Amino acid sequence: MLRSDVFQRFSYRDMGWPEDYDLLLRLLGSGHALGVVPRRLLLWRDSPERLSRRSEVYAERRFVAAKAHFLARSWLAGHARYVLWGYGETGRALCRALQLHDRHPQAIVEVHPGRLGQRIGGEAPPHHGHVDRQGGVERIEVMKTQRSLDAPPGHLHQSGLAALA
User: Fold this and answer.
1) pLDDT at 148
2) Residue 99 belongs to domain spanning
3) Run of H or E including 98
4) Torsion angle in degrees (nearest 10) through CA of 105, 107, 112, 116
5) Same-domain status, 85 and 116
6) In angstroms, what CA-CA distances link 11 with 22, 35, 37, 58?
7) pLDDT lower than 70: segments of the chain
8) Which alpha helices (H) appear in 41-82, and where do they start and end?
9) What's the pLDDT score for residue 63?
10) Contacts of 86 by beta carbon, 8 Å cutoff, 6+ apart
């Protein structure tokens, strides 16, 4: 649900990615609050013929392009560098999309146990919990345990970085 005056001000637009997602990101970026209505307001059938199932506009890469577009113009507008948490398929795609907006990771924090110890961008990872500044990108590996979840902010602080809350 959206107030009609807000919808008229923002409305839908075609940017090559889902219009409703674009609208939500623009609303968030302009300071509007979003919430969940605690009851069902609409029921529809999900079928393979739906536009969102067969149109290129709804491909995963188009969602990533939308996220990068809005991150670069909002939270990262004054920062060319950022800290990327997670370098799986989604993290790599977002990293590549943000590079198109001249936003490059200052640090990559990997927490997935199956990816710890693997190379990122052709470089070997640092030792567990260690910050490495090879190639201008800091790389931090952290095991996903309750004890180690408390460790990254300390490592970030030692590196002169800060996490956004």
Assistant:
1) 38
2) 59-165
3) helix 89-99
4) 120
5) yes
6) 10, 18, 21, 19
7) 116-165
8) 51-54, 60-73
9) 94
10) 109, 110, 111, 112
Between CA 38 and CA 117 the distance in angstroms is: 43
- The DSSP call for residue 123 is B
pLDDT score, position 146: 37
Residue type, 4: S
Domain count, the chain: 2
Q: How many CB atoms lie within 10 A of CB 85?
A: 16
Assess whether 112 and 137 both reside in one domain.
yes
Is the domain of 46 the same as that of 68?
no
Tell me: do 105 and 154 sit in the same domain.
yes
Q: Does residue 86 sit in the same domain as residue 153?
A: yes
CATH code of residue 105? 3.40.50
**Residue 150: its pLDDT value, please?**
44
Taking the CA atoms of residue 116, residue 119, residue 123 and residue 125 in that order, the dihedral angle to the nearest 10 degrees is 10
CA distance 95 to 109: 12
HSE toward the beta carbon, residue 50, CA cutoff 13 A: 8
Q: Are residues 51 and 69 in the same domain?
A: no
117 touches 126 (CB < 8 A): no
pTM: 0.69
